[in-house]
Design brief:
Blueprint: E1 2-6, H1 10-16, E2 22-24, H2 26-31, H3 40-43, H4 58-64, E3 67-73, H5 81-88, E4 94-101, E5 104-109, E6 117-123, H6 128-144, E7 148-153, E8 185-190, H7 199-218, E9 224-228, E10 239-245, H8 253-262, E11 271-277, H9 287-300, E12 303-310, H10 330-345, E13 351-354, H11 360-377
Parallel strand pairs: 1-2, 1-3, 3-6, 6-7, 8-9, 8-10, 10-11, 11-12, 12-13
Antiparallel strand pairs: 4-5
Bound molecules: flavin mononucleotide (FMN).
């Protein structure tokens, strides 16, 4: 069976003549909700989402699909907010327990004998950096979903999404010469759908608490910290820290939406940093998502300034009450401190990987025990 998920309307898809058995188009995606990060599709109604809208049974649909084709407007090197919404809502297709694939922690397949062929057609003008970013994340998705990556294509526009030949890459705008000097206003964005209950909230709160202390020690004025939730709140900030959980190897759909809307809001040269965490163990799995933010910065005239990648994010809240420089938190605290120094000095920091404090097998066992306990509490079996 061939399934298409796309941000075109049904009429636009029909006009392309692309063959399919099932299509989820703009109409269904726009009427559906974003993933809330509740993991109900693993521990309450295993395999199905607890939100009963047009994406509620996407995991089951994928299990019946042989060829999955995602058609999306190119958005900073990955998919548009609507197509990302569908990808985020697809995780019921996976089993919460872990497997090792390509030397990294990934989820086990819920449908062990099923293999998808995965294709991405990302239409619209795009730069060479966006092509490279898309190819990397597409490969990561294929590994994550136990799928075969059939193709990643870059058609010129929505009318030619099935074109065999890629449109040539367009030139990226020249980056701003310098980021601005010492920041006076810094926006902190919590892009986790879990809001105040999230690991992201804790990591950002830690940064917000430590930053004035470091400013005092460095004898510089502490910038005003603004908790921003809307794109317009980013205007007038000299720096932005984007806190987010990794969702399907990239940014959660809500954050992609925010960036699309914020593109014309940022002052030229605004420094953009990231503070990202993830469920898997290896922080390097987060790094490709930084390229999406870098591409956003190129499009917005902002300056990508680097970020912190926290592996084993499932540990962040359980160890939150232990000493900040104690064994269980030290690597994350040191990474956040490095980020703070860069924010305060108005400099770049590169990608800082905070390695988990426990061995991988211990994290895997603890996380799997937690899934079993949560499922039992909800009367579900996994
Ligand atoms: C829809 C969805 C997709 C996810 N995809 C990934 C992923 O690709 N890689 C990963 O390591 N973790 C993934 N996770 C796990 C989250 O990154 C992890 O639970 C994180 O700690 C949540 O952080 P938060 O509490 O700040 O939201 C995913 C979680 C959800 C709900």
């Amino acid at each position: 069976m061939r399934t298409i998920i796309c941000d075109l309307t049904h009429a636009q898809l029909a006009a392309t003549g692309m063959r399919h058995d099932v299509a989820l188009c703009r109409e269904e995606l726009a009427a559906a909700r974003d993933c809330t990060g509740c993991f109900g599709c693993w521990v309450r109604t295993p395999g199905s989402c607890v939100i009963r809208d047009s994406l509620g049974d996407l995991g089951v649909l994928l299990a019946r699909t042989d060829e999955l084709l995602l058609v999306s407007r190119m958005t900073f090197g990955w998919v548009s907010p609507l197509v990302k919404r569908a990808l985020d809502r697809s995780i019921g297709y996976l089993h919460p327990n872990f497997r090792i694939a390509d030397g990294q922690l990934h989820h086990r397949m819920r449908y062990a004998d099923h293999e998808l062929a995965l294709s991405f057609h990302l239409y619209g003008p795009s730069t060479g950096a966006e092509h490279a970013c898309a190819r990397t994340i597409a490969a990561a998705n294929a590994l994550n979903l136990g799928a075969r990556l059939a193709s990643v294509r870059f058609p010129a526009d929505e009318k030619n999404v099935d074109a065999e030949k890629d449109a040539p890459a367009v030139a990226a705008p020249a980056p701003p010469e310098h980021g601005r000097a010492l920041p006076r206003r810094v926006a902190l964005v919590n892009a986790s759908p879990r809001g105040d209950r999230s690991a992201t909230a804790h990591l950002l709160a830690d940064l917000a608490e430590a930053l004035p202390v470091y400013a005092r020690r460095a004898d510089v004025a502490a910038p005003e910290l603004v908790r921003a939730t809307a794109p317009t709140e980013l205007a007038g900030c000299d720096a932005v820290v984007l806190g987010y959980p990794l969702y399907v190897d990239a940014l959660p759909s809500g954050l992609v939406d925010l960036l699309v809307c914020a593109r014309d809001e940022l002052a030229a040269g605004t420094r953009v940093y990231a503070l990202a965490n993830m469920g898997f163990y290896e922080p390097e799995q987060i790094v490709p998502s930084f390229s999406v933010i870098e591409n956003f910065c190129a499009a917005a005239g902002a300056r990508w300034s680097g970020g912190v990648a926290v592996g084993a994010g499932g540990m962040v809240l359980p160890v939150a009450q232990t000493p900040r420089m104690g064994m269980m938190r030290r690597s994350v605290s040191e990474a956040i401190d490095q980020l703070i120094m860069a924010v305060l000095a108005g400099t770049d920091t590169g990608a800082i990987e905070a390695r988990p404090p426990v061995p991988r097998f211990a994290y895997k066992l603890a996380a799997e025990a937690r899934w079993r306990r949560l499922a039992r509490e909800h009367g579900a079996a996994i």
